[in-house]
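Q: Sequence in, structure out?
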Amino acid sequence: MNQFTGKPVLVPVLSEDCPTCIVLQTRQLAEIGRLPGVQEGKIMVVALDLDPAGSAGFIEKHHDEFTFTGFTARSPDALSQNLLNTFGPFAVDTDAVPVILVCPDGHDLLLPAGVKTAEALNASLAKEC
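A: Exactly. Output:
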């Protein structure tokens, strides 16, 4: 059985290309890691690195600075373009600390800009999923 089936997914979007927001991105990952649902495996996390192929990228360079139970992935250019087309420029603007919520029924949304606390994330999950 797919471990994502029936579970909401949080997708924080990250990039090493934004040196001023690395602290914010790391804080966002820490807030996600505080969610009881993440710790219990009821909420899945896929940290999506927008850095270009071949570069070390955010996840490789800053892995030891954040802790969460989840997956990491490098975004192919086509996926990054799809995020831009679907959600607009803030989905790929790591200054905005983007987090995309995908609910079990398949609908998705870009959460508000800025670092979202664990409490705010829980409220979005309860409201949307």
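DSSP finds five helices and five strands in the chain.
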